[in-house]
Amino acid sequence: GNSVTQMEGPVTLSEEAFLTINCTYTATGYPSLFWYVQYPGEGLQLLLKATKADDKGSNKGFEATYRKETTSFHLEKGSVQVSDSAVYFCALRTGRRALTFGSGTRLQVQP
Amino acid sequence: DADVTQTPRNRITKTGKRIMLECSQTKGHDRMYWYRQDPGLGLQLIYYSFDVKDINKGEISDGYSVSRQAQAKFSLSLESAIPNQTALYFCATSDGQGLTDTQYFGPGTRLTVL
What we know:
The structure holds two protein chains of two kinds. By secondary structure, chain A is an all-beta fold. Chain A has no helices and twelve strands. In chain A, strands 2, 5, 6, 10, 11 and 12 form a six-stranded mixed β-sheet that branches. In chain A, β7 and β8 form a beta hairpin. The termini of chain A are far apart. By secondary structure, chain B is mainly β. Helices cover 0% and strands 57% of the residues of chain B. Chain B is built from no helices and eleven strands. The N and C termini of chain B lie far apart (33 Å).
């Protein structure tokens, strides 16, 4: 079956620090990969996505590269801001199936 | 107006009561989903529907039922609520197009079962 493993949080960083949130997956078939973000009190919203090996998804300064050889899709940002404080979810989908989510990683950015 | 709306936003109920959570969307999407979110567990899929006549169980469907009344409406019912169904419930939609098939989430319903 499909599964997604994320690093446990919370991740606490100072403003302008470099961010990495690790995500690895197992999948039957060839998955599409996603990062969703949940701001306090809100539903999830798509942050970025990639559909094939070596694709790089990017949005709002965040990036993630689809690494088939290591079954990973790590999220990175060069300089985080307080407004990036949220919970980040890695997810995958194969075929017609619904998304499979990781457990989420809470990011706290301090001024 | 929001594309995906959920009602109610908060609900407190007692063990054994029947509860219905409603979801409406204006995105024109065929696919709709219900998830529950528990702290530290991410989102777990309860039910999903690829169109009005296609409803499927997810990972944790026991104790829940759904109704797809129209393309735009997808309701989740707890026939006899129990305390471990206390959670945050999200509805989502997607258009089912291509490999990316982005899901759009509602704001969530916080359910407490006493």
